[in-house]
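Q: Sequence in, structure out?
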Amino acid sequence: MWRGDAEKSLVTERLVLRRWRESDKAPFRKLNADARVAAFLRGPLDAVASDAMVERIERHFERNGFGLFAVEVRESGEFAGFIGLSVADFAAAFTPAVEIGWRLAAEHWGKGLATEGAREVLCYGFDEIGLSDVVSFTVPANARSRAVMERLGMSRDPTEDFVHPNVSEGDDLRLHVLYRLEREAWARGVKG
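A: Exactly. Output:
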């Protein structure tokens, strides 16, 4: 299937995207407990669930050679969240698929960091891992994430929107919009 370099780090003008450290867990707990960050997720995570997520991310890196990178702000060294790639772990019309995703602490919103980091991750995914396409999805109301997807050149076909199988029936967060970016479209956008 897909295979990347599990020890890879990516560097942008303002960010370092790297493997996780033990010291990332405390700020990640704070980020995951923030109701603003969790507004379009299935709720805030407690410390145990947040730490378990880090462990799942690390196992994903070991299994696939890529994953959700811990994001560090270059200037300050501050942990800011994650940006990266993950294999969708549920059955849907568009799976198997690799998803690009991000979750940043609220104090880092509105600065273009998600877009900056995600562009670098897309270069890595298409140029080094050899992915043919990448998807991203969120709930319709998540305007911030949808704007990042659109700035990345991802497009949405409303016929591909889906009901997330891991979200309970009746939950307002069940319906998801799907965005997609193919390698050829990315290459045209980067070079064009």
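DSSP finds five helices and nine strands in the chain.
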